[in-house]
Write a structure and sequence with these properties.
The structure is a single chain. The protein is an alpha+beta fold. The chain is built from three helices and three strands. The protein has one domain. It has a three-stranded antiparallel beta sheet with strand order 1-3-2. A hairpin with a 2-residue loop joins strand 2 and strand 3. The protein is globular. It starts with a strand and ends with a helix.
Length: 56
């Protein structure tokens, strides 16, 4: 799991609004760890793989 800020960076410095759109659409999985919101690396990998397929 990575922080929300790290996830934004890994996805090309996307904005918070776009990140939360991915959460609500189910494209990214978030997990609460105490007060922190984290993003699963697996869901980031799936989203990036989908972007790569669309670009090909």
């Amino acid at each position: 799991m990575v922080s929300v800020e790290k996830a934004r960076s890994l996805l090309g410095d996307i904005g918070k609004t776009r990140l939360y759109e991915y959460f609500y659409s189910g494209d990214l999985t978030r997990v609460k760890v105490g007060a922190r919101t984290c993003v699963t690396v697996e869901s980031i990998d799936r989203l990036v793989a989908r972007f790569m397929q669309q670009a090909a």
